[in-house]
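Q: Focus on the chain.
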Amino acid sequence: MDDIYISLTPEHMRTSFAEVAGFVIAVIIGIIVMELLLWVMLYRRPRNRLSAVVIRLIELFLLLGGIFYVLFYEVIGKGTDFVAAFSKMFNLPGDLIYSVTGLDIIPVVDLTELSNPWLVIGLLLFILGALLYVLSKPKITTNELAYLMIAPAVIGILILFIYPFLFEVRLAFADLKLTTFKGYRDNGGLSLFSTYGLSLENGIKNFSGVFTGSVAKNATFWDVFTWNVIWTVINVTLHLAGGMGLALLLNRNLRFKGLYRTLIVIPWAVPQVIAAMAWRQEFNYQFGFINTMLVTLGFERVGWLQDPFNAKMAVIMVNVWLGIPFMAVIILGGLQSISKEYYEAAEIDGASAFSQWRTITVPMLRPVITPVIILGTVWTFNMFNVIWLITEGRPQEKTDILVTSLYKAFVQFFRYSHSAAFGLVIFAILLAFSIIYLRLTGGLKSIYD
């Protein structure tokens, strides 16, 4: 039995550290190269037309090589070694010429076979940078420094969000699942540019299957969606009402106001995973704190996680407890931004406290509440942690929301293309809600006025 365990030896530690360090170094080098490239593009201009052609070719080489061979090298399945990836990038011009013309006029140089490949990589980058500098001259700039600062974040978003989203769209129109996965793998089809049976027919089948068949095991889309809407409406309403009440109380002149604000933030500050797992134990039928208190008060024990209705009440209680502090903090910030002069003028006119709240507080809070409601709705609609860690959708998938059903379809039932279509349906629902809500409420108008 001992041979099934992996011992943590110094050799394993050194290997793991080297892999992580290599990845970090590759990212740092990539950012430096990207920033230097952008610096040349924004702060310098070509000296003449010939210089412009050479500079554009160098920029194209760095962009195509960096994006294709470095950033997506692991996805292609050729490994994660940076030297091997850079070797492919170095030979990119020759590969492109050969693929277009069939002429092998540029010899292939395998950097992995050199004794000191890092020296060659550094020398190549230095030569390219020197060429860009020599072939260009300074130009007058205005906002280029800001562009340089936000460029890594923008490119990171494009890589980490836009590309996976586009890949999901492609996968939604494919036919990838457990029964077809082996065929693609055996035929060498599991790569970045694999089609996985991409077709309009498969896309229609996947999207129609979301609404007509079971989304995970037995539950249908409309069963899960109905409970998802009820779950979201109840939670967001209680979040808003509870947050508004606490914010109004904390906005008054109270002793120990700072202590109260600190205590209120604790549920929100605790990681959701820890909070949800702790609450799951409190709902235990025999030993949970809630049932223990009920027995102490003379009531019978409640099967919180065994009955569908009780399980739904349990997850709602936990999510309300988690969500009210965030709403209270945001609304409190909005209340403190409202000038006291409005309320003083209203008191002189004889307006009651409720009238002041209705005619001053609520309209002035609209620019704050509108985005918070949208965020709260999206977060609650997709609140995977609370549902999964407390009930895992049980009993009988009655507490499943759309994202937990999506997780089951992908991880437990290996329906990859179905899951991709399912995810796009969830995205479309939330996007439509956000657009309609903003148009109906006009909550952001005052920001643009």
